[in-house]
Amino acid sequence: MTDYTGQHPKGPDPSTLDGTTQGRKSLSPTTSQLPSLKIRLQKALRQFPDFPSPGILFEDILPIFQDPALHETFIHALELHVIEIYGQDDKPDVIAGLEARGFLFGPSLALRLGAGFVPIRKRGKLPGPTETAAFEKEYGADHFEIQSDAIKKGQKVLVVDDIIATGGSAAAAGQLVQKLGGRLLGFVMILELDFLHGRDKLPAPCYTLLSSQSASVASEPS
């Protein structure tokens, strides 16, 4: 399998995005707000030791959605994060959200970016013709599906979810995008479990909005 480790930054280096060198993207002036927004969001996360199993420190993103002002901050930060990475001229045509937490913010982000939203769901939950991709979980295989007409050939697609852990479900989502002929721009996650090296499995760059602990942190593994 191709090693993408060196090609998957958690986020762009601002020094390479100042527009001073040919080929570099110019930052929208509003992206200067992003660092302070990230700090506010990071402080809102809650941690639960030994959940869902001993030795795991669970990172809870749900408080972000309980406060309307914080929720708005979160969606705005995601919007700026995507613009910072891809620039105004290469924004996605489609946001593909993974079941289930990708559904919490994927549609709102899509609206802010002027993109469509496509759900990627567990097998058997979508009507009509679908494409399927398998991925491995702790206790066996699982499957994601996407409706066969959800993405048009050549559309630029960004996959979003709350966290990247082992990378299996995100990799399956990327495969589905490519099966339909979409141009997979990459993956945007809120958090990452660095020590599981899930991004190494992905077929495109992966960016995280917030900082995760390097070990023993978990959400629902993806």
The CATH class is Alpha Beta
**Beta-sheet strand percentage?**
25-35%
Fraction in helix: 25-40%
Backbone structural class: alpha/beta
Number of helices in the DSSP assignment = 5
Q: What general form does the structure show?
A: globular
Listing every helix as H and every strand as E from the N terminus to the C terminus, the arrangement reads HEEHHEHEEEEHEEE
Stated plainly, the CATH topology is called Rossmann fold
Q: What is the typical, i.e. mean, pLDDT?
A: 86
Ranges where pLDDT stays below 50 over 5 or more residues in a row are: 1-8, 10-29, 215-221
Brief summary of the model shown:
With 222 residues, the chain is of the alpha/beta class.
Give the secondary structure arrangement, pairings included.
Layout: H1 34-44, E1 46-49, E2 57-60, H2 63-66, H3 68-86, E3 94-98, H4 102-113, E4 116-122, E5 130-137, E6 140-147, E7 156-164, H5 168-179, E8 183-192, E9 206-208, E10 217-218
Parallel strand pairs: 2-10, 3-4, 3-7, 7-8, 8-9
Antiparallel strand pairs: 1-2, 4-6, 5-6
Helix pairs in contact: 1-3, 3-4
Subcellular location: Cytoplasm
Region (Disordered): 1-33
Pfam families: Pribosyltran
